Amino acid sequence: MNQPVELVFAAPRRGKPPRHLADLSPTERREALTELGQPAYRARQLSTHYFARYIDDPAEMTDLPATGRDQIVDGLLPNLLTPIRTLTSDGGTTVKSVWRLFDGALVESVLMRYPGRVTMCVSSQAGCGMACPFCATGQAGLTRNLSTAEIVGQVVAGSRMLARGEVEGGPGRISNIVFMGMGEPMANYRTVISAVRRFTDPVPDGLGISQRGVTVSTVGLVPRIKQLTEEGLNVTLAVSLHAPDDELRDELVPVNTRWKVQEVLDAAWEYAARTKRRVSIEYALIRDINDQAWRADLLGELLAGQLVHVNLIPLNPTPGSKWTASRPEDEREFVRRLEAHGVPVTVRDTRGREIDGACGQLAAKTS
Fold this sequence. Notes:
This protein is of the alpha/beta class. It has helices at residues 26-35, 42-52, 69-76, 136-140, 148-163, 189-200, 222-229, 246-252, 261-275, 293-303, 328-340, 361-364; strands at 82-89, 94-100, 106-114, 117-121, 125-127, 142-145, 176-179, 214-218, 236-240, 279-285, 308-314, 345-347. Strands 1-2-3-4-7-8-9-10-11-12 form a ten-stranded mixed sheet, with helices on one face. Helix 5 (148-163) packs parallel to helix 6, helix 7 (222-229) runs parallel beside helix 9 (261-275) and helix 10 runs parallel beside helix 11. It is elongated and about 70 Å long. The mean pLDDT is 92. It comes from Tenggerimyces flavus. Its cofactor is [4Fe-4S] cluster.
C-alpha cells in the first residue's frame, strides 16, 4: 500500500520580493511613477527600456533625468534575479541558468534554440509541493511561490542574452514560453496568469509574445484548469499525466488521489472545446513503470477522438533515483500503439542531459 503523501498547495509564508515594474499593470506603473514624484509618462519610457530593449543598466536609460534616474530604477527595477550558475550544451544552443532570489531561494530557467524558434522554460515556484517521486524538484519540496516579476524576469534575461548575441546562432527573439520549470504553475495561479499577460501584452506594456506561443502545464489541479478555461486566453494547456490508470498515477502523481485521471481529462477537454486549442498530454516514459504496451493502449483509448497531442518525454533520471528512461524498443512500441489509436504523438527532443537538464537537478547541486 502506498504511504500517504502530503501535498502542499499553499506556499510557506516568506518575505515579499520588492515591487517591480513587471508586477504592475500599465495604469499601476503610471501611479507608481507619480508616487516617486515623476510625471506619469515616464512609466512608458521605463517599460520600453525593460520590455523592448531589455536594458538593465541605468546609465543606458538616457531619456530619464539624470537627477532622478537612480530613484526611478531603485523604485521600479530592483534586481530580483542574481545569476549563480550558467551552463550551456547542444553546441551552445541550450542555456540553463540558476538564479538566486532576494531571499536566497534558488530557481532555474532554460533557453533552448531550435531551427525557427526559441523556447524559454520558466519556473513558477521555488521548489514544488506536488511530491512526484521521479522529479528532482518534487523531492525538494516547496519553498515559496514566485512573484510575477520573478517569473517575467527569467524571460527578460533570456531575451537580453539573445538580443546581445550571447546565444549560439546570433541575435534573436524568444517565440515560445513553457511553464515547465520548477513548481506547479496552477498552484501559483493568479501570479502565473499575471505573468502570461506580461508576456503577451503588446510592447512596451509587455513582451509582445503570441498567446499561442505560451504553454501552461499542470499535474491536474482541476479547479484551476476550469478557471483557466474562463480566462479568455489562447494559451496551450499541458497536462502532466504520466499514467493512464489511477492505481499507478496515485503513486507517480500524488495529486491524483484528489482528482482522478478521468476528472482531469474531462476538465482538459472542456478547455479544448472552449479555446479550440489542442491539449498537450505530457508523459514521462519510465522503464518498467509506465511504459508497458497495455498502458499505451489504455492511454490511446482515453485520448482517441479528442483535440490532443501526446508529448512523450524520455525520463532524465535524477542522481541516485530508481527511476530511469525506457528502453528504445519500448519507447517505439509505445509510440506505435498510440498512433494505432489515431492519437498524434511525438517524442520530446532531449536537451541538456550533461548540464542536469531535468528541472531541479542543477539547483539541487548549487548552494
